[in-house]
Write a structure and sequence with these properties.
It is a single chain. Helix 4 crosses helix 6, helix 6 crosses helix 15 and helix 15 runs antiparallel to helix 16. The radius of gyration is 22 Å and the shape is globular. Strand 9, helix 9 and strand 10 form a beta-alpha-beta unit. The strands form three sheets. Strands 3-2-1-4-5-6-7 form a seven-stranded parallel beta sheet, with helices on both faces. A five-stranded parallel beta sheet has the order 10-9-8-11-12, with helices on both faces. By secondary structure, it is of the alpha/beta class. It has two domains: about 210 residues, Rossmann fold (3-Layer(aba) Sandwich), CATH 3.40.50; about 160 residues, 3-Layer(aba) Sandwich (Rossmann fold), CATH 3.40.50.2000.
Length: about 400
């Protein structure tokens, strides 16, 4: 008997989460439409997905309208929700990062470590994004952002586990061709306060061992405050740090396997992509792990085995020195972290979990079309255009449709 496959339309793909997921779902076939690559997107986005041919929202909505009837349900990431909302789809919103801890529908929303708002949107813009948030048929969030989601949707679903693409990240023999003269850490995440670069660089002043850090030259630049932090960090580069240009995602494994160890985030206390990828490559990973940031794996709550358990500067320095100087400690980290990743990134469990989600929602809704009235759909686009202060002639064109 042939198993019915649910066709899923994914709009947006933060950190290639949907691309990785598409490789492990058995009852769901995921087609990704991503936003045009820009800046860092040239390095972190997979090429073998569909990209919108235009940056204009109206044209992106038109593209989704052309293909939507080929699918049973939609899932969005990042700003994908506004396209799904304007196209009147039944969509699941999936949050993994800053799109919910500082949401577009909250006035002057900002992240906890910044004074400057991430978004400065007018009332109509905020109303539009609030409506698009409420319009989703389900909200799903990862561990770190789930508490933020819970503020706005008490029925939102928490899913801590995430599949890491083992066809890209593993300990197979692929390394950059470069001479190594001392113990080498690889530090590929964006620089800035959210990742704790400021803490790491201050902690290096207390280190006594001999090592080098390969740091990817990549910054968050969303507001003036982040730009000032960038200038400050670039003016205080420690002697141990060597900056390298952005690296394409498919080539990251070469750097992981070249390095002796990996340094991840030192601020949030939670495990993110860099730490997971490093552990997949069987490298000892240093990351500040808050004792409060336990995660749930297959209904079991655990504390991820990352180190140090404090982001005090001297504790970070002690962790670095211990990693450099103790092979026994490095081996211990690799054993513990490899076992953790095996469970955290279990492709069978995660694939089945998402299959069940897509099947449940597609059966509940019966169609990807929400079937709102034409007047309601037109109003959404008009609200979006007015909120973004676009031309009246575009609004009149929509009214006549």
């Amino acid at each position: 008997m042939e198993i019915m496959v649910i066709n899923v339309l994914a709009i947006g793909d933060t950190s290639n989460v949907m691309k990785s997921l598409s490789k492990i779902t058995k009852k769901s076939k995921i087609h990704i439409v991503n936003f045009p690559k820009d800046g860092a997107g040239e390095f972190i986005c997979d090429d073998d997905v569909e990209f919108f041919s235009s940056r204009k929202v109206r044209e992106q909505v038109e593209r989704i309208n052309e293909i939507k009837d080929n699918y049973d349900i939609c899932i969005t990431m990042g700003t994908g929700d506004r396209i799904a909302y304007l196209a009147d789809l039944n969509y699941i919103q999936y949050f993994v990062g800053r799109d919910i801890d500082a949401p577009t529908f909250v006035k002057n929303s900002k992240e906890q470590w910044f004074k400057t708002p991430l978004h400065k949107l007018n009332f109509l813009e905020r109303k539009f994004y609030h409506d698009s948030f409420k319009n989703a048929v389900e909200h799903v969030a990862g561990r770190w952002v789930y508490p933020f989601l819970k503020k706005f949707d008490k029925n939102g679903i928490r899913m801590d586990m995430m599949y890491v693409d083992s066809t890209i990240f593993s300990d197979r023999e692929r390394k950059i061709k470069q001479e190594k003269t001392k113990f080498t850490f690889f530090c590929p995440q964006r620089m800035g306060i959210p990742k704790g670069t400021n803490l790491l660089w201050e902690a290096l002043k207390f280190c006594k061992s001999n090592f080098e850090i390969i740091q990817v030259n990549w910054f968050d630049e969303s507001n003036d405050e982040e730009l000032k932090i960038k200038d400050k960090l670039l003016g205080e580069i420690p002697l141990q740090v060597k900056l390298v240009p952005m690296i394409k995602r498919k080539n990251m494994v070469n750097y992981y396997n070249f390095a002796d160890a990996v340094i991840g985030g030192m601020n949030t206390g939670f495990t993110e992509g860099v730490e997971i990828e490093g552990a997949m490559c069987k490298k000892p990973v240093l990351q500040y792990q808050s004792k409060k940031m336990t995660i749930i794996i297959k209904n079991k709550e655990i504390l991820p085995p990352f180190y140090p358990l404090s982001n005090n500067l001297k504790d970070i320095a002690e962790a670095i020195d211990r990693t450099v100087e103790s092979e026994e400690f490095r081996d211990q980290l690799v054993r513990q972290q490899s076992q953790f990743i095996k469970n955290f990134s279990d492709p069978i469990f995660i694939g089945e979990w998402w299959d069940d989600m897509f099947i449940k929602k597609s059966y509940e809704k019966q169609s990807i079309r929400k079937n709102s009235s034409n007047t309601s759909i037109k109003f959404r686009m008009i609200l979006f255009l007015i909120g973004n202060r676009l031309y009246w002639k575009k609004i009149k064109k929509i009214i006549k449709i």
